[in-house]
Each structure stands twice: as C-alpha cells, then as structure tokens.
Amino acid sequence: MKKIGIVTKREYLRRVNKKSFIFLTLFAPVLFAALVFVPLWLSSIKSGDVYEVAIVDRTDKYASLFKDTDKFHFVRAGDAGSPDEYRENNSGIFAFLEITDDLLTNQKAVTLYSEKQIPADLTREVNRTLSQYLENEKRASFNIPNLDEIIKNSRVNIDVQTIKWGKDGTVTESSSEIASAIGMVFTLIIYMFILMYGAMVMQGVMEEKTNRIVEVMVSSVRPFDLMMGKIIGIGLVGLTQVFIWCILTVALISVGGLFWSVGSGQDTAAAMQVGLQAGISDIPEVTSLLTKLHSFNFVEIIIYFVLFFIGGYISYASLFAAIGAAVDSPEDSQQFMTPMMAFLIFAVYAGIYSVQNPDGPLAFWCSLIPFTSPMVMMVRVPHEIPFWQVLISLVLLFASAVFLVWLSAKIYRVGILMYGKKPGIKEIIRWAKY
Q1: What pLDDT digit, counting tens, does each position of 4-38 carry?
Q2: Would you state the torsion angle of the CA atoms of residues 407, 410, 416, 417, taken in this order, to the nearest 10 degrees?
Q3: pTM for this prediction
Q4: CA angle at residue 388 from 384 to 392, to 5 degrees?
Q5: Which residues contact 160 (CB under 8 A, 6 or more apart)?
C-alpha cells in the first residue's frame, strides 16, 4: 500500500502542476459559458441590411397586408410580368413574391422567387401575414356574431403544477424536466471524464513503456502497485478538477447575480449580502426555477455521482491500462479501443433514451450492467428511484471493478515488459491465465 501511495502521489502532483491543467481547470467554466452564450449573443446582433421584396398580387387582395420590418422592405411591383422579366429590370430586388389566385380556395397560389437561398425569417413573415389574414377572413365567412370573442374566450391553457410529498409531510414544487436535465449533465460529465482520464492512463502507460522507464520502476515496485497508483492518481486529478469546476461555477453564478442586482438599481450593500437570489428573485420564472431546484436532494445526488464516477472510472481505467501495457503505439491500440468505445457510446445513448422513462426496462437493466450503470443510473437518481436498485447497482459496479482490476493487472504485468510484438486477443487471454 505504501508503494501505491508513492506512485499515486507522483502521478497526481505531476499532472496538477502542469500549466495546461491549471489553465483548463480555471478557465474551462468560462469557456463553457462562452460556448453557450456567445453564439446566442452574436445571433441577436442584427446586420443592419434591409432586403427589398417585390410583391406581385394578381388578386389585389394581399399586397397591402405586408408591413416593413427591420430586415425586409416590401414594395408593390404593379402589373409586372413574369418574375424573370421583373428581375432583369430591377437589379436591387432580393426576392419576388407572386400571388396568382384566391388563397382561401388555392393555398398553393403563392410563391417566393430569389437568386439566393430564401431566409427562413422571410418565409415565416410571409406565412404569418397571410395565415393571420386568411384565418380572420375564414371566420368572417361563417357570419356568426362575436365569433372572434367566442374563440378567444374558449381558449384554455392548462399548466399542471407538479408537487412532491416529503417524508416529513412537507410539499415542494418539482419538475421532471429539471430532473432529466440534472441527470443528463452528470451523465455527460462521467462519460467525458472516463473517456478523457482513461485515455490519459493508457497514454501514460504507453509513454513509460516506450521510454523504457518502466524497466527501472518495476525493479522496485510491483506491476500491480504501479498500475493501481497510476489509476488512483489520475482519478484524483479528475475529482480535483470536478470539485474546482463546481466551486467556480457557483462563484460565477453568484457574481452574475451580484451584477444583476447592481444593474437593476438595488442597493450595492444589499446586493452583496444576498448575492444571486436578491438579484433575480423578483422574476417569476426564476423564482419558480429556484423553488423547483430546492425539491432535489443535491447532497445525495453528488454522493451518488462520486460513487458511480469512481466505480466507472476504475473499471474502464484498468482496461485502458491493460491496453496501454499490451501495445507499443497508439495505432496498435485501435483494435482494442473499439469495443470499449462501443460500450461507452451505448451507455450514453441508453442514458439519453432513459430520460423519458427512467423506470422502464432499458433504464432498469442498463443501470445494473456495470459497463453502462455509471451513465444510466445518474439519469435515474434525480427521479428518486428505490434505494435497493441503487445499492444493487453499486455492488455490481464495484464488484466488477475489483474483478477488472485483477484481470487487467495480470495482463499488465506481462505486457508492460513486452516490446516489438503486436499481441492478438488470444495471446492477451493467455497472459491473463498466467
């Protein structure tokens, strides 16, 4: 155990002291936020260009309905001929709208022409304008007094409020959509970190094997201790990164709430005191969201996340280590990586499909299979599934992790000292039987 601790310390400190790790850990939350909000902000910026759309209305009923917008300027083309003739005489026209018949009887009698691909917002504007007018005209043709008011008063929108009972008799507002979103976030985090840090384990093993450093190391450390120290050390690096990201995310949200408070004219000292909640609690949508978030036991969710992350990471990282010990180059590892990637991708898709039915057969059985349970179970946990299912899943996961560590260690101790030979599946099985 002492030597495992030494190797773990070496692997951990060697990676957390890298500038790339520090940069990624500190700025990843900012980068993720930028990837989400910058495209939204850029999409809201208008170019300022106004496109001219010529309207030829053969019926003289619809041209007057179109009003200019920030992006489109509608002009009457009069008694223009064909769209080709009008385009030749008017080079500045972006699009040509032709209406040839009564649209109540012939909905296909409207066409947009343009030399370029017609923007979706222009199509929506034309459809909205004509549809609204035709609906009013259709209702007027029924000759029913106050029909518009009757239709307006007959519309009823139901928004079912979901309430969760607590064990102590308390009631809180809940949301299955938020539960699904929370589960998918944790699922993707586990998938990303297993893939990233598992590959890091394999790369580190191959690097030491290629540089022949391992020959010196195994003279004083058992191959099993070396493999476990590497797996644990890199796993702690991943948990450290997740922990720091959580702290930075909370800090960014709190700072955002503070600026919101100051920007909305509230007292700065009060804003500093109450942070985010003071800034946005007056917005009904945000208040409802915060109320629904309070119905989730995040302590329990995070504990399960750590357990399933550890079990899933150890299972896959031990296999990554065995693959790294068995091959000499990244190219040779592809044949062994393919089935592992298939399991990981299947696990993610099983989690995605389990969102709509977290108690269904797919979600239940995939949450028991050790190769898929870390991802699928995190989708189900926010929905508060029975504890016995979580317990069985954890027992199976950690039992398989211990078995895979034992199996990978047998492959690792032979393959780590094998050079210049590309082993096949049969030979690796023979190593495991030694």
Answers
A1: 888 888 888 888 888 888 888 888 777 777 776 67
A2: -160
A3: 0.67
A4: 115
A5: none
